[in-house]
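Protocol step 4 of 6: record predicted structures for both targets in the notebook before any analysis. Target 1:
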Amino acid sequence: MNIRIKSFSFIEMLFAMLILTIAAHLLPLLIKQAILFNSHYTSTQYIELELFARDITQSIVTSQHKLTIIHPQKFSIATSKNQIYSYSYKNGKVIKQVNDTGYIILLNNVLSFRVATIATNHLAIHLKLVEKGNILKKQSIYSMKGFLSSFVAGFFMLYLSLISFYLIHHSLKLKTLNNIEKYYDSQIEKHI
């Protein structure tokens, strides 16, 4: 008489325990990251910084690579649409002007704003911001030229061609070894 009892097998139980153990190890890390992201991204200062960086990046992408630093707290970028975007620090705010008319407030609660050039084609921006009594220091470096030089692109192409050559060579070697093994197996079977 066979009595069937519905239950988990030992392998299924081990697999379930493995998944639970991995989840138990990852849970504290996930909670820590969630708390960190929550504290950073519920703050309006971090959101404003991201939008500020995006605005400057868009201005640089549409620019004619003409950057003018008027003084350490003001710079302008000439675009291909014959517009001049000016960024300056006034009364604890970083503002943007288009053709020196009107303004858009990009950052609030700014303690200091300094602009400098590194070499000839890099813009460095140093910021000190205040939010809820905390001082946040931020330094950003922007490149006025393309983000991928021809040397880097050529080196990357060479790297990819070497990897593809190695993969083709390795696959041919495996195919040859497989054919040799099949041939020897067939020869052994003939003589046995």
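Target 2:
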Amino acid sequence: MSTNKKVYIELMRIIAAWLVIFNHLKGYLLFIQTTGSKQWIYIVLSMITRINVPVFFMISGMLLLGRNITYSDIGKKIGRILIYLITFEILITVAESYMQYRHMGILTFDLVVFLRSILAGNIYGAGAYWFLYAYIAFLLMLPLLEKIAININAKDISYIIIIHFICFTALPIINLVLYFKMLDEIVLNSYIVFPFGVLKCIFYPLIGYYLDKKINIEDLGWKPICLSVVVSCCGIAISGMCTLAEGMYLGRYSENFTELFDYITAITFFLLIKKIIFKGKMSVRTERKIILWGSLTFGIYLIDPVLKAILFNKYISFFRGRIPLISSIIWCFVSMCLGGTITYIYKMLIKNINKNIGYRKFV
């Protein structure tokens, strides 16, 4: 893998990881609690935040599709994900139980409920791990998706984007208008399902693969990227207007329209970052830092909910409910620094253990 390619992948991972952490903080939902010009700022920030998971799935698609990965390799990958998932869900359960006992003097734990919760993915405090369940689904479909990805073309990508647009953009907007007119909303029959355009764990990997493998970023001019930026801004504006219209009509705001155009924004982000890295100049030192921090993002993502369970209440009490946006932004950096440090130490320990084992076998 070329240095430029590795840098833009890791840079996207770092930004997406930051947005995932922010997505689960109060700062993300500030548009629900405010009015006026500030509300628009918070709406834009929340809409941009929603590209986090799409970007991770796009990176997964570009890295794993087209590599002829064997069923054995898929089994190993799923096994590793399950080990991490169960380990950190146990850690969160222990941390939450400890904090409950410390503050309330009550300790409740039911093993059967816990095991069922792992299967259902509804462990308290571990909501952010839903992505791992979706990622396992992606890995299970990988052999079939590879066959599709290898032969995918511009017409195919346009087709699945149009399906996605109908289901996740046009239909919600139409139903909002119908709701204002006091008419029944349009509901599609549950059997009308097109997974390639609907399921995130299929749609975004295929998009990521196409953008990376089928489009030469060096031949792609700035004009289509700038056009994509304009379309993304229009999408965010439409999403914001729908959010405000619903809120004014119902008297409360929601997240119902935050993902209307997230796929357009994610595609724009992907192309923009890749273009900047390939066309721009960056010092070797900066590249190494980006590659290092990018390699730590999975650990940061896993550790953040555990840090929240242990530290977040004290952290928030320090701010006393004030400046929620600033406190959320600061927490993102605190979590990334702590999680990154822990992950780095863990990786160095594993590396040294493997090195020593290898040395002993050789001797």
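Step 5 preliminary note on target 2. The two ends are 33 Å apart (CA to CA). DSSP finds 15 helices and no strands in the chain.
Proceed to step 6 after PI sign-off.
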